[in-house]
Amino acid sequence: MFLMATLLLVSMIVESNEKEEKVEVLFFSVN
C-alpha cells in the first residue's frame, strides 16, 4: 500500500514537471 502510494506520488511529480495541466486533470478526475 505504502509503496504504491509512493510510486503514485513520484509519477505525479514527474508528470507535473513535464505537463502540469495533465496533473491538474488527474486531480479533478480523482476528486
Detailed description of the structure:
- There is one protein chain.
- The protein has helices at 2-18, 20-30.
- The chain is mainly alpha-helical and 31 residues long.
- The chain has one domain.
- The radius of gyration is 10 Å and the shape is flat.
- The relative contact order is 0.13.
- Residues 1-16 form the signal peptide.
Strand content: under 5%
Number of strands: 0
Poorly predicted runs are none
Number of helices: 2
Largest sheet: none
Q: List the helices and strands in order.
A: HH
How many domains make up the 3D coordinates? 1
- Percent helix range: over 70%
Brief digest:
The protein has two helices and no strands. It has 31 residues and is mainly α.
Tag the structure with descriptive keywords.
31 residues; mainly alpha; 2 helices; flat
Write the layout of secondary structure elements.
Elements: H1 2-18, H2 20-30
